[in-house]
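Researcher: Here's the sequence for the chain we discussed earlier.
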Amino acid sequence: MKVVEPIKRTRVPEEVALAIEKIIIDNNLQPGDRLPSQMELSRTLNVGTRSVREAIKTLEARGLIETHQGKGIYIKSNNLDYFLEVLNDSLIFDIYKDRDLLLELTDVRKMIETNVIYEVARKPGKELLQMLLEIFDNMEKAFEAGQNVAAYNLLDVKFHKTIIGASGNKIIITLYKYLSNLLKKSVTETGYMEGSLEEGFQDHRLIIEALVGRNPQRAKELMEKHILSTREKLQSLLM
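Model: Thanks. This is the structure I predict for it:
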C-alpha cells in the first residue's frame, strides 16, 4: 500500500486527517476497503495515537470512514461530492491568503463555461430559456431598484449555474455546486465597481438572445467576453 511521507512532528489532528485522506486517494481505496489500524497510522505518519484518534473522529463525522469495533477502520464513502466539498473548503480558506486564486477561478470558468454554452446553444430547451428569462427579469428588478448589488450578485451566480445545469454533465454540475461560494465572492468583488452592473446586465441580455437564436458561436464569444471582463476587473482590484 502506498503511504504519504511521515509527518515529522506532531501536528494538529486536521493535518493528520488530510494525510489519511491522501492515503485513501493515492491507494484508490473504495467503500468497504480497510484502512491501516490506528497504531499503524501512528507509526507511518510519525504522530501520537491521540492525534490519529481525533483525526479518525473528524473523518467519521464527515462520513468518509467508519470504525467497526474489534474489526478496524473502513472506507464509508469517497464519492465526488465529498472530495469537492473538501476542495471547496480548502480553496475558500486559501483565497484569503492568496487572492490571485480568484483570477485562476475565472480562467477555469472560461474554459468550462464557454464550451458548455456552445453545446447548450445548439439546442436549448424551452424550460432552460424560461428559467434564464425569469432569472434575468429578477436581475433587471434588482438592477433598477437602486442597484441592489447583493441581490443582483446572487442572481448572477444562479444564471451561470443554470446554464451549467443544462449541460447534463454530472461532474461539472457537482463542481459548480461546491464552487458557488467562490463564484459569489468573485462577482461580489467586481459588482461594486463603477459601471460593472450595467456591463454585466447587458452581457446577460445578449447571452440569452444568442441562446434563443440558437447561435452557438455567438453565445460562446459573449460568454468569453463576459468572463474576461470579470477577470480584468479582478486584476485591477488586486494591483
